[in-house]
Amino acid sequence: MQSSDIKVQLIEESKISQVDFNNLPFGSVFSDHMLECDYKDGKWQTPVIKPYSPITLDPSAKIFHYGQSIFEGMKAYKDAEGSTLLFRPLENCKRLNKSAERMVIPQIPEDIFMTGLKKLLEIDNNWIPTKEGSSLYIRPFMFASGNGFHASPANAFKLLICTAPSGAYFAGKVKVLIEEKYARAANGGVGFAKAGGNYAAQFYPTQLAIEKGYNQVIWTDDNTHEYIEEAGAMNIFIRINDTLITSPTSDRILDGITRKSIIQIAKDSGIDVEVRKITVSEVIAAAQSGSLKEMFGAGTAAVISPIAGFGYQEKDYDLPELENPLALQLKKQITDIQTNKAEDPYGWRVKL
Amino acid sequence: MQSSDIKVQLIEESKISQVDFNNLPFGSVFSDHMLECDYKDGKWQTPVIKPYSPITLDPSAKIFHYGQSIFEGMKAYKDAEGSTLLFRPLENCKRLNKSAERMVIPQIPEDIFMTGLKKLLEIDNNWIPTKEGSSLYIRPFMFASGNGFHASPANAFKLLICTAPSGAYFAGKVKVLIEEKYARAANGGVGFAKAGGNYAAQFYPTQLAIEKGYNQVIWTDDNTHEYIEEAGAMNIFIRINDTLITSPTSDRILDGITRKSIIQIAKDSGIDVEVRKITVSEVIAAAQSGSLKEMFGAGTAAVISPIAGFGYQEKDYDLPELENPLALQLKKQITDIQTNKAEDPYGWRVKL
Fold first, then answer.
1. Residue A64 near residue B141 (C-beta atoms within 8 A)
2. Does residue A51 belong to the interface with chain B, where contact is any CB pair within 8 Å?
3. B200 and A195 in contact by Cβ < 8 A?
4. Does residue B173 register a pLDDT over 90?
């Protein structure tokens, strides 16, 4: 597919003058255009770029009933020369298709995804924020638009790509609660997929944690609640002495693109990285002995989010305030690559 | 709330003449009207009954991204005198609210639900099939209509009640596969809720089972795969000799209304009923010794669905063909109560 194959319908009057780019929320101001692509009659149709506008669906569309939906999160940046940059975009497309397979949603060809995304970013190029810490958050999503009250896969789907100029996902220090009762994912379930239902399932326990003064939940395995898994919106890294530890991915844990980039950057910076199961008891023991130096989350929306403290079994544990934490070193390294302030030895950065 | 408080907008021309009531599919022909009720500004607004028509939503509506949705399944019947009958409708409303709590969706007041449902059935009364084995399938559902790409609960929701004159859910004999790898629900998860995401999560393993010649999957616990849980669209009953066994409900298993009605009817018919955990090995041993007499599923859509055979570890097991199986006895008892062909000592039947 070529860029010229995409149908384009431009907005009559841009909304951009109404946007305060110095005070951007996360993901709630939307750019002028969106990409829409329908799957029907057994194939993906020609994508259309059109003004950001409502979607109309039959009340029996399976998205409303059976949660057959998946999404991705990506970011576009501008460098000092004004070029548009993406970070490992093919990884998002690949993961979208992994999620699609598990949720019985048809695979989206890489060329439709990449060509469509690039064209959308050309058209809404002015919407990419340049202020440090801001970016254009990109939300590709696919859902069942086919109809019927039979609990079986739909025969029609939609892919949309919407974008939202965004500021930080978390404001201020992040405190987390290590979960002992609720669980995010089952063995043999869909935890590794960016499936819609994985997120709504976290709302209630997260709300309980927020009521207790925490920002997020760190999920543990559903069987023993003894192993650290992920934080729902982020993978989790734990630094004990000078070793950085993160759980291996599994069918319960999302294969985070920020996560694997951080592992690579940390290893190449000479940091001792261990990808292995880590128990809550190990973390508690490290906190008590003083060897627990840092915890941080890593994800596209949050980038790297240092954790100031955590709660477990009605007790709070503070993380030490370090002068030069790994979290901030690694955050600088990855954002410098993303925004073209540093060399990119990995070929991760894609200039449009 | 009174019936007269509901706003009504009638269809200009009914579609009913286009429907072949002798050949009804399940859940894909829709009645003339639907009920719609919006939750915004912290409260449920006045419900509206209007022609069955498309729903329009912002692309950032959280239903598309985070699977914040729940539903119910109910049926309306006509008796010989032409009265409209519901079966334990308040139980559906209560379960909808249980699901709502877990998915951080606001509670729907019982009077909005019941008054709205009754008025909808008055208006579309001609859509209730009278043919044996057919009924008006009722689908109440609630979903997040509020906007934003932040993974947190929405602030606006919709309740809809749509109806579909329907025939049988399963056609022919049902063969099931006892699952050993995939899982439907986690401990501490949302398996007990009728949450949308629970259903899409089952599509892939179910598709694999269908490719092997089965109709449904019988889910086992995600940790050991040793305990029988439920079938996704049905709870499961197993008859060993003259004892009927079904798994206790839990945070992983749906508290089925047909399930608990069958338990009650069976007990009152003098059948030995055990609500207890049942292992796959016990079922296999019973199949091998000949003491496994019946297996059947129970749910609103499927009513009682006798299972003809099951697969486990690449081996198929046939259930015996009995002359007067409990499944059919109990199915007759429950449908006779539902359709006013028998006394209802329980007060389950609700005449409109």
1. yes
2. no
3. yes
4. no
Boundaries of domain holding A74: 3-166
A248 is written with which tokens?
Answer: 């291996």
**Is B198 in the same domain as B61?**
no
CB atoms within 10 A of CB B251: 18
pLDDT, position A233: 87
Smallest CA–CA distance, residue A71 to chain B, in Å, is: 7
Cα–Cα distances (Å) from A268 to A265, A271, A272, A333, B348, in that order, read 5, 7, 10, 11, 68
DSSP state of B309: E
In a domain, A181, yes or no: yes
Same domain, A23 and A148: yes
The stretch A13-24 carries a mean pLDDT of: 97
Interface of B with A in 158-177 (CB under 8 A): 160, 162, 164, 166, 169
Which CATH number goes with the domain that contains A321? 3.20.10.10
Question: Mean pLDDT score of chain A, rounded to an integer?
Answer: 97
The tokens for B203 are 């599509």
Does B113 map to a domain? yes
Separation of alpha carbons A97 and A103, rounded Å: 10
Angle at B303 (CA atoms; ends B302, B306), nearest 5 degrees: 80
**Cβ atoms < 10 Å from Cβ of B85:** 23
Calpha distance A202→A199 (Å, rounded): 5
In sequence order, which residues have a C-beta less than 8 Å from that of residue B322 and are 6 or more positions away?
A: B293, B294
Rg (CA), chain B: 21
Domain endpoint, select from B114, B132, B166: B166
Query: What is the pLDDT averaged over residues A308-313?
Result: 98
ipTM attached to this prediction? 0.97
Where is A165: in which H helix or E strand?
A: strand A157-166
Mean per-residue pLDDT over chain B, rounded: 97
pLDDT attached to residue B171: 74
Q: What size, in residues, is chain A?
A: 352
Could you read off the pLDDT of A202-231 as tens digits, one per residue?
Answer: 999 999 999 999 999 999 999 999 999 999
A298-319 burial, b for 16+ CB within 10 Å, e for fewer?
bbbbbbbbbbebbbbeeeebeb
In terms of domains, do B206 and B72 share one? no
Q: Which tokens is A284 given?
A: 């508690």
**Does pLDDT of A252 surpass 80?**
yes
Tokens of A215: 């920002």
Pair (A180, A149) in one structural domain: no
Contacts of B104 in chain A (CB under 8 A): 200, 203-204, 207
Taking CB atoms and an 8 Å limit, are B54 and A54 in contact across chains? Answer: no
Of A30, A65, A137, the CB nearest to B196: A65
Q: How many folded domains does chain B comprise?
A: 2
Tokens, residue B197: 């995401």
Which chain A residue lies closest to B219 (C-alpha atoms)?
A: A188
Do B108 and B178 reside in the same domain of the chain?
no
Searching chain A, which residue's CA lies closest to the CA of residue B233? A151
CA–chain centroid gap for A247, Å, is: 17
Which amino acid appears at position A282 of this protein? Answer: E
pLDDT in tens, B89-119: 999 999 999 999 999 999 999 999 999 999 9
How far apart are alpha carbons A232 and A216 in whole angstroms?
A: 8
Pairing between β-strand A33-40 and β-strand A157-166 as defined by DSSP bridges: antiparallel
Residues A165 and A21 sit within 8 Å (Cβ to Cβ) = yes
* pLDDT, tens digit (0-9, with 9 covering 90-100), for B147-163: 999 999 999 999 999 99
User: Which chain A residue's Cα is nearest to B150?
Assistant: A27
Chain A nearest-CA distance from B10, in A, is 17
Verify whether the Cβ–Cβ distance B150 to A27 is below 8 Å.
yes
Nearest alpha carbon to residue B141 among B37, B218, B22, B281: B37
What is the mean pLDDT of the segment spanning A126-136? 95
